Amino acid sequence: MEPSKAIKEYKEANTKLQIEVGEYAKKVGQLTIEKDWLVEKLKDLDLSKN
């Protein structure tokens, strides 16, 4: 394998992985916000007092 070809493939794979990691981070952030919202709503309902 030619060094320049290997470097090009490495850079392409690295870019693809960085995009995937960014998408995963975005999804984790979204799910965290949703979880926090749901926890607060459950606290507001506080059905244990009924």
Structure, explained:
With 50 residues, the protein is mostly helical. It has one domain (3-49). 86% of the residues lie in helices and 0% in strands. The protein is built from one helix and no strands. The chain has one helix at 3-45. The protein starts with a helix and ends in a 5-residue tail after the last helix.
Secondary structure tally: strands: 0
What is the string of SSEs from the N terminus onward?
Answer: H
Tell me the strand percentage band.
under 5%
Mean pLDDT: 92
Which structural class do you get from the secondary structure elements?
A: mainly alpha
Q: How many H/I helical runs?
A: 1
State the helical fraction. Answer: over 70%
Distance between the termini: 72 Å
> Biggest sheet, open or closed, and with what strands and sense?
none
The rough form would be described as rod-shaped
Rg value: 22 Å
Outline the low-pLDDT stretches. Answer: none
Question: Tags for this entry?
Answer:
single chain, 50 residues, mainly alpha, 86% helix, rod-shaped
Set out the fold topology.
Blueprint: H1 3-45
Summarize this entry quickly.
With 50 residues, the chain is mainly α.
